[in-house]
Design brief:
Shape: globular
Distance between the termini: 30 Å
Strand content: 5-15%
Largest sheet: 5 strands, antiparallel
Number of helices: 10
CATH architecture: 2-Layer Sandwich
Helix content: 40-55%
Number of domains: 1
Radius of gyration: 19 Å
Order of helices and strands: HHHEEEHHHEHEHHH
CATH class: Alpha Beta
CATH topology: BirA Bifunctional Protein, domain 2
Mean pLDDT: 94
């Protein structure tokens, strides 16, 4: 039977956490967090694993509560002006084992009023970014097919920050110079809470990621990892 993983209690907790982001409140409501937020998210990750294998056999859906696909709720406040201790959203990432947040990956962001899906490579180091840029410059037809096809554009929008001028060594008149100038090679898809809470969301999310397969495959090949 289809399951609604992210139903009303899930978003109700996150909404209340936003209004009460302190350790006293969280500790008093930790049982709710585990039951209404963590457990449904981990179940979603576990149930999504077979669908993920069809999208990429190299990506992993890891339902462990620590060190798995679900991000920790606790914020790292060491270098942030914002000292609130908890994230006011749930983040889920699927990628190859042994890679980090800057590697090609699939992302799901669940926040009251601000849900979205993301794919691609976020803020890679300069050598990796230049490998992607060079791949776009050398293979414009393949890049166009991966990013301008009807199936991709009907679901995804290219996003991410951009350099103010073309990077050194790249033709400023290249037809995809705006993409070459990117700092992030990512695409996003906005989601409503109604979509995310629907019993069919597991399948809808799989279809969404399937539409991004050419984009992910291009980036993975450019940086030398499997997809």
């Amino acid at each position: 039977m289809p399951t609604s993983y992210f139903a009303s209690p899930f978003f109700k907790f996150l909404t209340e956490l936003t209004a009460n982001n302190d350790r006293t409140w969280f500790n008093s409501n930790k049982t709710r967090y585990i039951h209404d937020v963590q457990e449904p998210a981990l179940q979603f990750i576990s149930d999504f694993a077979p669908r993920l294998k069809k999208i990429s056999p190299h990506y992993v859906a890891d339902p462990r509560p620590m060190g798995g696909s679900m991000f920790r709720i606790y914020r790292d406040t060491r270098f942030s002006k914002d000292k609130t201790p908890y994230k006011e959203y749930v983040g889920i990432a699927f990628r190859q084992p042994g890679t980090d947040v800057h590697a090609p990956g699939l992302y799901l962001h669940l926040q009251p009023g601000a849900c979205y899906a993301g794919v691609g490579v976020w803020r890679p180091e300069s050598p990796v970014a230049n490998r992607i840029r060079q791949a776009i410059a050398d293979q414009p037809a393949a890049w166009k097919s991966a990013t301008r096809g009807k199936g991709f554009l009907s679901s995804w929008t290219i996003e991410g920050e951009t350099l103010s001028r073309p990077p050194k060594g790249f033709d400023p008149d290249h037809p995809f110079i705006d993409d070459i100038k990117k700092k992030d090679f990512t695409a996003g898809a906005k989601l409503t809470q109604k979509q995310v809470a629907a019993p069919r969301f597991l399948d809808d999310y799989a279809k969404l990621l399937t539409a991004a397969k050419p984009f992910q495959a291009f980036l993975a090949k450019a940086v030398g990892v499997h997809f």
